[in-house]
Amino acid sequence: MSDKHIAVAGATGVVGRQMLKVLEERDFPIASIKLLASERSKGVKLPFKGESLEVEVLGEDSFKGVDIALFSAGGGTSKHYAPHAARAGCVVVDNSSAWRMDPEVPLVVPEVNPDAIQDHKGIIANPNCSTIQMVVVLKPIHDAARIQRVVVSTYQAVSGAGSAALNEMDAQTRSVLDGDPPKCTIFPVPIAFNCIPQIPHQNAFESNGYSTEELKMVNETKKIIGDASIRVTATTVRVPVHTGHSESVNIETQNKLTAAEARALLEKAPGVVIKDDPEKDVFPTALDAAGNHDTWVGRIREDISHPSALDMWIVSDNLLKGAAWNAVQIAELL
Ligand code: A2P
Predict the structure, then answer these.
(1) Is any ligand 1 atom within 6 A of the Cβ of residue 148?
(2) Of 90, 129, 142, 201, which residue is the catalytic one?
(3) Alpha-carbon gap, residue 309 to 99, rounded angstroms
(4) DSSP secondary-structure letter at 118?
């Protein structure tokens, strides 16, 4: 592979910084790298491979000569700038939700549907963080036993809402421990010492009562696995965790799979690590997942209320497999 000219749009954000870290760790073949963010970050310097690189302001002309642009600067920014980048001959890997359900845009999880990238027309979408870690586990089960229905509840980390949200949780935690009232500017109610069943934290709910995050899990799962017949329902919840999304997932299959059979399948699944030994109180948590690329599965058991269903607990780093690592995997495929 020849060295690539790379741009990272949203380089100063929580996901953007992880993208730089993963590119560095993977020793991605880079001819040049451009760090892009808003006016607010003009002149900010970020470390990359022992150098200190100055952030540039993202503009319509930022992508001349760039081969691959990793975007994580919000949906509105992607909607506006990704087509400019594509027209300049650059391939955009976009972490926002702006393009995911566009039929012209592949939605890719490299362990699940790597071949989909071949159909790109300049933009490839990185799926929703909660969806990525779930489909990595669902795919081998679907291939073996045909999934009919999935019921998922999420326990999502605050870093998924960006750096300002993380700062708010930390400040609220300190306030509460000091006996002061927590101040809310990002979240509608305190996130410290609380759980919030509303993602995103504003304008979340559709007329059917589902949040947009929940509908992303429903629709993106079908698109990535390539089977519109899989029925999915989701409840997505923000919890006071810095990094690592956890999910309780119930999976109904056409053909019965025992827990042992599911465990054997998942042991061979790429990107999946099993941590599951109830006799020794062994199960994965967000702290296990934070900082590494894998998706962790535990609490695998047969659903006692259904003849052909499994329950399990799926955990992954929302900034890595849920965002930066999946995006860099797509760039590696390119
Ligand atoms: P900036 O730091 O200059 O605001 P997070 O998810 O952590 O909040 O980060 C969002 C990222 O998206 C940041 O890098 C932010 O840059 C960038 N961003 C947000 N809006 C824009 C915009 N209009 N143009 C360019 N970058 C943007």
Answers:
(1) no
(2) 129
(3) 33
(4) G
> What are 101-121's pLDDT values in tens digits?
999 999 999 999 999 999 999
159 CB less than 6 Å from ligand 1? Answer: no
Both structure tokens of 185: 């500017």
Say if residue 330's pLDDT is above 80.
Answer: yes
The CATH architecture one would assign to domain 4-127+324-333 is 3-Layer(aba) Sandwich (3.40)
Hey, whose CA ends up nearest to atom 6 of ligand 1? 162
Could you tell me which CATH number the domain at 131-318 has?
3.30.360.10
Give CA–CA dist 28/22, Å, rounded. 9
Shortest CA distance to 235 belongs to which of 148, 151, 132? 151
Q: Are strands 272-274 and 231-235 parallel, antiparallel or unpaired?
A: unpaired
Q: Which is it for strands 309-316 and 245-253: parallel, antiparallel or unpaired?
A: antiparallel
Cα of 240 vs centre of ligand 1, distance in Å, is 23
How confident is the model over 49-75, as a mean pLDDT? 98
pLDDT in tens, 221-278: 999 999 999 999 999 999 999 999 999 999 999 999 999 999 999 999 999 999 999 9
Compute the distance between CA of residue 124 and CA of residue 147 in angstroms, rounded to an integer.
Answer: 26
What's the rounded Cα separation, in Å, for the pair 251 and 295? 17
58 lines ligand 1 (CB under 6 A): yes
Residues of the chain with CATH 3.30.360.10: 131-318
